[in-house]
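Sequence in, structure out. Go.
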Amino acid sequence: MYLKALEVSNFKSFRGEVVIPLDRGFTAITGPNGSGKSNCGDAIQFVLGPRSNKTIRAQNSKDLIFNGGNNHNAARSCSVTLVFANPLLDNGRRRLPLNMEEVRMSRSIRLTKSGNVVTNYHLNGDESSQKSFHRILGAANARPDGYNIVLQGDVTSLAKMTAKERRKVLDSVAGVTLYDDEIRKADRQKDSVDDYIERIKLLEDSQKIRLKELKKQKDLAMKVKDLVEELSQARVTSYQANYASQLAEKEYQVNEQSRYLEEANDLEQQVREGSKTLLSLDDQIGDLQKQIEELTGGESKGLNKVIFDLHLKIDTNKDKIADAEQKDIDDKQELAELSELLTSAQVALQEFVTSLESAKSDLDESKIALSEAKSEEAEVQKIMESSGDESAKFSQQLTKLLGELEQANEQLTMAQNEVNKTAVQAELIAEQLSKAQDDAEENRLALGELEIRGEELTGSNSGLDRNKLSKDLISAQRSEEKLVGESQLIESKLREAERSRERLRAEMENTSGAKGMAGGAAAVISARDNGELTGIIGSIAELCAPIDSAHESALATAIGGGMTSIVVESDEVAAKAIKWLAERRAGRATFLPLNKLSNYRVAGKALMVSKKSGVVGFAHELLDYDAKIDTAIKFVLRNTLIVDSLSTARSYMGGVRLVTLRGDVTEAGGAMIGGSKRKMSVSFGGGIRGASELEKLSSEIDNLKLMSETVSAALHEARVQQQQLRTKINQLTDSDQAVKLQEWRAELKQAKSVYNKSLAEVATNEAKLAELETTASQQLDELDDAQSGVAGLNVKISETRESMEASSPAHLKDRLHAAQIKRVDAEGVMANALTALDSGNEHESLLSDRVSDLTKRIESIDAAIIARSEMMDNLQASIATDSIELKDREDERTQLLEENKGLEDERIALVDERASLRTELTQKSTDAQSRRRLSDELGRSIINKDTAINELYSDMQAQNIEPASSDVSLPSVGDAEKRVRTLERAMEKHGPVNMLAIEQYAECEERLDSMKVEFKQLQSRRTNLIEITEKLESQRKQKLVKVLDKVNENFQKSYEILSDGGKGELYLENPDEPFKGGLELWAKPKGKSSKVNRLQLSGGEQSMAALALIFAIQDYDPSPFYYFDEVDQNLDAINAERIAGMCRERSKKAQFLMVTLRKVSLRLADHHIGITHGGDGCSRRIVDFDRERAIQLSEIESAKDNPLDERISAIALEKRLEAQSDMPTVPEPLPPPKSLGGLLNFIEDEPAEEGTLSSLIERTNEMTEDIEERQGIVNAIESIEQEKKDEQVLEQENKVEEEL
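Output:
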């Protein structure tokens, strides 16, 4: 077997297809440096499979493809084919395990469009793999990792190896790695056995201790075993007794349910039969009644009708008298109330007239005082202005501001007057609207009654019982009287609650210090809590609290009316809240929007005073609050300081607001406020005092209104019922029907007209009120603007005065203070007087109208009482006359009935019988219903019982207990449970008993016996493993020494030839334990001392020694062909010739390929391959005179006899059997001892097998190769799929173009 040809295509520097013919013997491959001659060897290794691309001088697979050189395009793929001649040997076999004369091994790579590399292997044109190549070549001892291929640097590497590295080379040659694997396997198994033995020893000790403990428990368990069995049986009996009892109860309930159903059906049948009897009795009674009525003149005319009409007339007149009397009582009560109201209205009118006169007097006095104060103030300001200093400028500015303030106050007064005027008008129209609504409601009810009356008049009126209708009418009248009383009581309570709410609201507003504000603030807070308003943070009172409780009174006074101010997130929220208050007429409130409030700076005077003695500090500093509302707190307090006493305040007053701990105040302008403490309506940390009571009263009013509506509806229904009854009674007289219907139509028409007029009046008043509400909203906005303007001017005036006072002399300052105080007081008195006078005329007119209305109402009630008195006298006279006539008619009817007493007695007897039967049937019907209810209850109980029985049965099944058979006698449930409890107490006397100890003791004893058996097995296996390891060690050593002897012998011969008479030897550093030491190489070139060290040899001498070792290894493990790549490059001519000569000599037995530049090598070579390049970067083969002979090819025969895989497997099996024929093998590991049980989970896994460095490298390379191969296939598939997609897209585009 030899390499017959090398076919390359675009491989590295070879462009296109190049065929290099080869032959037996010694072939020299030569060419200039860089010509690509070494690429021939790279091509061979490329097919055989290098350890890595770096071995064939490439960074990656792409570098193996022809790159185009200088003038050509780069290729996209490359391929190399090794053509081996595989002739028959003398023994009839072939070196390559393929039955064919020529074997072609090809490897190619190509680049996809995406740049990925795809690798393919072919064996004789069929797809194959690198592993198949390795197996085939390995069978011929032509492994790619053997020493048949020697590359550049391999000789130097071998020469510089350490002793241990050199010994590992010998290990590989000797094939002792199989022994290493077996030894490691035996060691691992021995470690596992040792671990099992140790664990069994430890477990055996613990089991012996446990056995002693279990023996005691077993003895106790044996004693109570019978008791346990008895208890177990008693529990089974208890379950069975309970189950049987439940079944018996269910059976009883089923029987009872059936009995109740049968009884109910019987009773219902009796009721149905009795009902038929009742109908028969009704018919008999009707016939008798008809006979009696015929005797007394009939129903619709005659004596009975006259008697009934008289009864009805008398009862009607009595009802009218009762109604009139009740009306008199009501009117007299109303007269008393109206008299009180008239008296109070007259007194109020007189007091108001007096107050108007007082206001006029106060106005005149205030004008005089104001004139004097202004004169004094003007005189002081004139003096200040004439001073020419800074105070003059402030004085002029103050004069201007005072003028503006006067105008603003006038505007404010006008706005307030307009608001008051509108409020009065709204109040009058609201009263008119309320009266119109009440009238409309009364008219609606009257119209409804008339409509119902009309339905009755136009409907059927036959078959009515006059006596029954009369009784029903009397009952309805009594119900009406009761409902009227309840309605009056509820109305009285409702008026009282409304008056209380108004008083409380007024009190809250008066005590809060903010007129009209407290109620609005409380409403907003309530709306916030109910979720109606959002963005409301809370009132100042809620959001802050004194740090020290001693300051509470002072801080509350300092804040004043601001306690009810509402802090909101933005002005938008404030606007929504104001709109909400206006829509619901819930009052007014002050809002502090955080996004609009500006930071309030501390004034210089206040800052100076705050540092003096007696001053507690700024008010806002004494409060605890969230920093978020800091601007709001400072806004309501401004520069207010808290001081300890009034004397301290007096000493620092002027230019700064001071509040004492007692609650006295000195304003910045000089005003002083104090006196007795008043009760605060608002406290820190809570809401407005009285707000909860107000809310409670509002809730009570709502409830009373609901009750009033309910009673009114019931009263209306009662009156409608009376009207219906009266209508039915009246309809009994046929002659009056047409007259009554005509009267009803006239009344209905008039009622509709009155009702429509009242609705129109309500609509008119509502429109007026809505218009006034719009006007009031605008006026309130104007009033707010005016108040804001006045407040702003007051602030500016205060600041200007402070500045002016600060820059004025002390005597002028005092005069100015006195004038200002006098002016402020006068302005206050004048403002109050003007307000009273402006609204006085309208209020006086309103009071006068009130007195006039009350007087007219009293006169009207007096007239009605007189008229009713006359009517009652006439009715009494009519009742007396009708009663006399009624007595006469009843006497007449009695006489007729006595004459026909037999019919009446028979009728009475039948009526009694009917009543008795009806009572009996009613009772039976009730009993039937009762029994059906009991049956239903039993049905539900049966369902529950089924559930309980199923649950009990499931429990019994879970404990493997079956119900007792019917023929078994069971105790009662109580007796069975008592027996269980008795046995349990007996068990408790013995204490805790482990009944499993009997079984556990047997198991523990059995486990100890098993441990003893397994312990003996493990010790036997350990001894066996030690013996096997010793044999393996001995045989490994023997084989290594044996191979070393042969290789050493070959080395001595080779080195003697290569060194021309020199001596060389290989020896172990540690002959006794060779695997603990290395392999030393000793070489003594000819003419040198025998004491020379290998390291003292020259580089060429070391290379010759290394080559001698390579030849020695090759002689021990010959290959059919060898490839040397410039192994003579570091040698001189003589040594190079010796190497070439040895290659020539050895080429008689094997094929030698050598890349060389040495002439001597070329001269001794049998064949020559010349490689050159033409300056374009492309390698070319030079054809010599032997070219024709070199490229002759033998005929190729087809392989028919032995399949590839079968032959490879046979050769591999033969080599393995040959290597292991005399090597002892380690038996399979014993299974883990069963006696260890759960401890096996804690035994660590065996460590991974460690291989030699060479085997690891080999495995890594093979794995890398597999990964690359697999990745190449994946990339190829992806590339092919992408190419197909591109072709499909291109075809579609072409079709579209053709269609266009």
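Check: Residues 561 and 762 are 40 Å apart (CA to CA). The chain has 27 helices and 24 strands.
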